[in-house]
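Can't paste images in this forum, so I'm doing it all in text. The chain is below; anyone willing to post the predicted structure tokens underneath?
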Amino acid sequence: QAAILQAEKLAEAKHENPAINIVVQKIVGTSIKDKLNLPGTIIPWESVKMISEVTGKVVEIKVKEGDRVKQGDLLVQIDPRDSQNNLNSADAAYELALTSQERAQKLFDMELMPKAELARVNAHLKTSKAALDTVKLQLKKCEIRAPISLIINSIPAKVGLNMNPFMPIPVLELINIDKVKISVGIPEADVDSIRGLEYFDVIIDALSGRKVRAKKYFLSHQVDTMARLYNLELVVDNPGGNILPGMFARVEVVKKAFSNAVSIPIYAVISKDQQKTVFVEQDGKAHLRIIETGVLEGWRIQVTKGISAGDKVIVVGHRSVGEGQNVKVVREVTDAMELVN
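Text version of the structure:
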């Protein structure tokens, strides 16, 4: 009879506290990273704005936008006629000064000219030679040539436009994108963590989310006074030229990585009374555990205290149970991502 009474009590208890179906994640060691995702902008490795160093009219443009040019290639021709006329005059003046100097030297050697007069003639020769060299240089500058191998990005100048060294617009702009830089603003609080890093993963959305490996090139030593950010420049090889200036980039900054860490879905954590808790399943019952958390990566959060490897954390049904609640495990996973696959 006592056995019958005990069975009846158990049946009543089960009826009053029916088992709730749950899904659990069995804790196994995994890696988790403390990382930032920061926006960045692609900029050319080199950008050269070329101006006209002489005054004159554009008579010919030898290139078009997008052309790849080599060092020394002729890009734009400025009307050379004024410079050529100046050269002819300077050359004639130099020849006359040279003849005068030769005659003066002979007279001086014959003691028919004072030394002071010879010095004046020699000085005039030097002045004439300097003027000739200057005009030759001016004529050479009528040909605007590529300083290095680059790509023509834009050509503000047009045929017929009068150019001079003081104009606010360049004749043309050239860029080098065989490599590109990525400019990123770093918050003050993260500068120390980033200072010791060398490589970064970069995602470029415009290239279908392509991920590239970038190397640190420069970290500024002075904060931008407006944004209160430190400028970090990364460099990426770009042999195909697919990464273009102006593209948006997302830079993953791994401040610290943890291996064999305990992590669970952030949604499994229940915050109450300024405490973070989870429910674990043990022997068919739910038990409340107070936990402490660490870094957050995506939807996963690191648990530094309160649960350990082998524990079964309730990740589905956890908001429907209480301490000591009867539960029934309908599925067990080791990674919550299995639930969405």
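The mean pLDDT is 91. The longest strand covers residues 30-50.
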